């Protein structure tokens, strides 16, 4: 299977990828429009994403450019701090960090948020990428609507273990990426997408 080619999504060049999509259908365009408005509210409330996923795959926290938790609409340059459920611990080093590089609302029928693994907020010119995937990986979240459906999709591209770190962390990242997270995460992303569009 090849990665889908979708406008705005980076081409798959190397490493792993996933195409995760969930659709909810409705009786007519009016109901679809109402449900899409609800989905947009969910989509932009990143701090609540975990509440929509069966089994709560992770905790998502929206942070500003300094790493401070914020409760507002996301902006380009913001960060999302992620604590995965299968490696949940309260220690600071358990968090994964991604930066929001793109938010596209130019299409009236879809919205896109694209992220990539990052260094710690406020330290973009020093330090290591704080994620088990490399900085070349992207994760793109898209919501969209048609005449009788709403859709949430999550596209991962060029997923490679993060080697931009110390030896111990590098080995740990390879283990997490290939053994502990990659397989289960595809199921977990599906659970998140399903939960986001479950609006009946």
Q: TL;DR?
A:
By secondary structure, this protein is α+β, with helices and mostly antiparallel strands. It has helices at residues 29-44, 167-197; strands at residues 16-25, 58-63, 79-84, 96-104, 110-117, 138-145, 149-159.
Question: Can you put this structure into words, describing what you see?
Answer:
The protein has helices spanning 29-44, 167-197; strands at 16-25, 58-63, 79-84, 96-104, 110-117, 138-145, 149-159. The protein is built from 2 helices and 7 strands; from the N terminus they run βαββββββα. With 200 residues, the protein is an alpha+beta fold. The model is unreliable at 166-175 and 178-182 (pLDDT under 50). The chain is 24% helix and 29% strand.
Principal-axis shape equals globular
Order of helices and strands: EHEEEEEEH
Question: Which structural category do the helix and sheet elements fall into?
Answer: alpha+beta
- Give the distance, in angstroms, between the N- and C-terminal Cα atoms: 32 Å
> What is the alpha-carbon Rg in Å?
17 Å
Strand content: 25-35%
How many helical elements?
Answer: 2
Biggest sheet character: 7 strands, antiparallel
Number of strands: 7
How do the strands line up in the largest sheet?
Answer: 1-7-6-5-4-3-2
Low-confidence stretches: 166-175, 178-182
> What's the average pLDDT?
83
How helix-rich are the residues, as a percent range? Answer: 10-25%
């Amino acid at each position: 299977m090849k990665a889908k080619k979708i406008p705005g999504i980076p081409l798959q060049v190397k490493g792993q990828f996933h195409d995760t999509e969930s659709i909810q259908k409705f009786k007519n365009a009016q109901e679809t429009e109402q449900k899409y408005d609800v989905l947009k509210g969910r989509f932009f409330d990143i701090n609540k994403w975990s509440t929509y996923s069966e089994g709560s795959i992770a905790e998502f926290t929206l942070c500003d450019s300094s790493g401070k938790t914020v409760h507002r609409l996301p902006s380009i340059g913001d960060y999302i701090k992620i604590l995965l459920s299968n490696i949940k611990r309260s220690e600071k080093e358990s968090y994964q960090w991604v930066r929001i590089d793109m938010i596209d609302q130019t299409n009236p029928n879809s919205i896109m948020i694209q992220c990539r693994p990052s260094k710690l907020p406020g330290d973009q010119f020093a330090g290591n990428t704080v994620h088990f995937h490399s900085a070349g990986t992207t994760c793109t979240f898209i919501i969209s609507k048609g005449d009788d459906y709403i859709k949430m999709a999550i596209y991962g591209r060029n997923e490679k273990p993060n080697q931009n770190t110390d030896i111990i962390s590098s080995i740990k990242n390879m283990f997490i990426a290939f053994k502990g997270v990659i397989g289960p995460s595809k199921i977990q992303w599906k659970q998140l997408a399903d939960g986001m569009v479950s609006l009946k």
